[in-house]
User: Fold this.
Amino acid sequence: MSTNQPLISINIPVFKCEKYILRCLESVKNQTYKNFEIILVNDCTPDESMTIIEKFVQENPNLHVEIYEHEKNSGLSVVRNTGIKLSKGEYIYFLDSDDEITEDCIKLLVKNALKTDAQITIAQNRWINTFDNSTKDFGFPTTASKKYYSDKLEIFSVYSNGDFPSSSWNKLIKRDFIVDNEIYFVPGLFAQDELWFFHLLLKTDTLAVIDDITYLYYLHGESVIFNRTKKNFENFLTILEYFTQAYHKEINEALKKLIKKKIILFKEMVLIMQWKALKDKDYLQTNISRMQTLARLNMSDYFNSDFSVSLKKKNFFQNIPARFAAKLFIWRFER
Assistant:
């Protein structure tokens, strides 16, 4: 176990972030933990973000900053992958360019990572709502009951219950763990964090949690969580297809059950989000029909105590004829 001050690679994507990037960089500059590098990947931003960054770098020559320029706009997944490959630190930390971190963020995460030697260390976050200037602690909460996990099945079980946030940011992760297992982001996906974290936890043996709020997530009109178009929901269907591929490839029967559970719960979440955002009955029915081709409970699973009654009900309602399933879903949701 390392006892020194390991180098931390703080990865920040650059694309249309001129309003926020200086605030983000200043929060990194102000870290009480000093052994870090800043990896900035410019995904052909069309605004003044790079001008602001270049001025910041010139004014802070003591900071170790690496800037990489993509030759063409490739999307956030490719940006994240570029950042991973450029990182030289023992640990990687993802930070979005419109957010910031507390002054003690890296120090607290490193302290726990060195103490536990965990592959992943997760902290808490605070929402800052720019619409009404309100704040909310634990906006994307880590609700896991334990602070340290050393069993792959237990980790994935907690994840499938939704007790770890699926964001890539606000997590300190061993770089070699990512690279050795080739856990990269899938190009072209909008909600790439969800799938990447799924793939990450399929390999994770040790994970630690701290209760400190270290990440400030800003809610504004351009925030990802407000992107709720058909294009985004097609993206969720693609993620479900990847989940199903992982289910069919997995040879550990206990883990297969947990993946199946995750798929059913993710289907339910996507249908709820879709209906709330679009209120499109035909599209809802279409997606229910498409989801029925993916992994689901079989008859023997209904006699298996590993699956809860609630999960069995969700699976049943998802897999009756799509026309009736859509009507029943709307009735259940709107009542």
In short: The chain has two domains: 8-225, 228-334. Residues 228-334 form one domain. Residues 26 and 260 are 43 Å apart (CA to CA).
